[in-house]
Automatic annotation (TrEMBL):
This is Aspartokinase. The keyword DNA damage does not apply. One of its GO terms (molecular function) is aspartate kinase activity. It comes from Candidatus Sphingobacterium stercoripullorum. Residues 379-436 form the Aspartokinase ACT domain. Belongs to the aspartokinase family. Keywords: Amino-acid biosynthesis, ATP-binding, Kinase, Nucleotide-binding, Transferase. Its EC number is 2.7.2.4.
Amino acid sequence: MKVLKFGGTSVGSPERMKGLEELIGTVNGRKIIVLSAVAGTTNTLVDIAQNCLRGDSLKAIRICNDLKEQYDQFVADLYTKPESLKLANELLNDRFSLIQKLLEGSFSPEQEKIILAQGEILSTTLFFYYLKEQGEQVAILPALEFMKTDQEGEPIISFIEEKLGNLLDAHKDIDLFITQGYICQDYQRKVSNLRRGGSDYSASLIGAAIKAEEVQIWTDIDGMHNNDPRVVSNTRPIAHLSFNEAAELAYFGAKILHPQSVFPAQKYNVPVRLLNTMNPQAPGTLISKEGREKGVIKAVAAKDGISAIHIHSSRMLMAYGFLRKIFEVFEKYKTPIDMITTSEVAVSLSIDEVTFLDKIVEELQQFGAVDVDQDQTIVCVVGDFGANTHGYAARVLDSVKHLPLRMISYGGSDYNVSILLDTEHKVEALRSLHNRLF
């Protein structure tokens, strides 16, 4: 069985949704289709919830009514049979009545999560009705019945495997299934969402749970490119990546895939293929266990919004336990660290979550002098940087020798060399690395 995930642009209009049926038909065998919400819907639902949280329920209701009108037109253009249109309109009335009811009176984050879940419920049910109208044998697998997280917000693979297996066994005569990405139930069985990676994460978790033949992530570009095509000319798709290489690129800025989405597939050794809905014939990018090529630099990616923190203290000299105390500050505020470099008397590290930056800096000052540089970018070069390779790190650094570097990270992984610099130098760094490396 294969798992195919389609993002919001793939179902962003009635025409796209109709084209999706034809595309799915070209994939042989049993398959589970994971859908995001229709493009723009989730952002609008967030806007509705945020206005309600701010106390402006009237504005939230106006936005909700506008969204309902957009969906009324959507279903009018999608279906041709009266019975399908009737079902779709009943769905819209039911879902939007639920949203309106949640907007009345007091409003909580729990209600917000219920509202956010409606986007995927709408897209999957509307697509299900369309496929039924076309005579397809298809079943819906409600994500809220099998996708569950624990108290830490981590998915419970064993639960997903058991419940999803039961749902599939109940439809042994069906080869085509549809389910929602992004949404789940939490450990208290309340409506929640996967946050990190959204629908990509859902697809990877489903693929892992059913030991899928392959997980396909369909987007609007031809796989993962070897640099950012928005600012660098002559980039090309990468044919093959290892799970580790793909995770590095995704984490450090390749927007086509969320890094969290790689790990379930990697753990259960399920290949992931990145494909283009607009160009289905393109081979895309295959991510698998056997992806690493010796002596090859694969790609460059960049991650903006980085803050660099530098702690200087003579107490580090010949001391033990100092770094543990530093890390405990970041653990206290649940703030992940991206890069770190050390010397005998200083530590430099970078973060991209700055919610508690002021408090972190205040606590770090008890250990020494603290400086912070904001508006930084991490540029990551991914490839074979194992112990037996020669000269590749030098080539990377030589490519950016004309730029001021804040930090350099090398040796923490066999897969990347990372540099930190001011964001104003990012585009020049990407272009220079591309010209020298590729």
